[in-house]
Amino acid sequence: MDRFTRLEFGDTAGKKGSQGEPVRNAEYFYKEAYKYWFAAEFELALRNFSRVLEEDSSIFGAWSGQIVALIELGEYPEAIVWADKALESFPEHPELLALKAVAYSRNAKFEKAIAFSDNSVTKNDVTSRVWLARAEVLLNRRSNVAENCISKAISSAGEQGPVIKLEAARLLKRRHKYSQAIEYLNEVIQSVPKSALAWYELGCCQAKLGLAQAKVSFEQCCQLSPDWDEAKRQLKRVNNRGFFRRLFGG
Predict the structure, then answer these.
(1) Which domains occur in the chain, in start order?
(2) Averaged pLDDT for residues 71-92
(3) What is the DSSP letter of 22?
């Protein structure tokens, strides 16, 4: 069992104080950040990672998570600024260099992306996210080595397995490798069944392959995140596709 199987998706996460309320310490905000990340609520994840750092700036995972959240929000220059801030406390940390590579890659600055990625894999204590970032940069260059990097990322993920597998699946989806993505997403859902993000990505991949299971996946996503407009739009799309298939005997 990894720590993500124990995430509370209600309002009861964390230790309890004398009044039965959760103790709002660094551990509490860290769990909250990942709860929101698994729900695709990246702005709220960012806020909670920031709260972790307010409580304890020595927690590396909060620095890394904050940068990842900024990248998800498309705030690439800001992500690089925060990576540089983190490097002041964690000099030459390979994961920070790798996240800068991802930010540059998604901002279409591919030469800088490969330079930071090259640097990150030469360091000691290379993390799973370093290999995942390497995969993303290499996929942009259409390198056959990219999928090997994904395998390295997952094999070295440890208790971060659900996070890394979900990110790997999303990366594979962007490269139209839907069947491979589905395999990882099914594993994520086994670990974190209340992840709206995992259900959404699974539905997208299934829909691309014309699989009827997409409807169930989007329904699960919408049940977990009723206000997610894009998920509702995708569910309506697969429902319409099913209606016309039945109408015309497809």
Answers:
(1) 159-250 (1.25.40.10)
(2) 98
(3) B
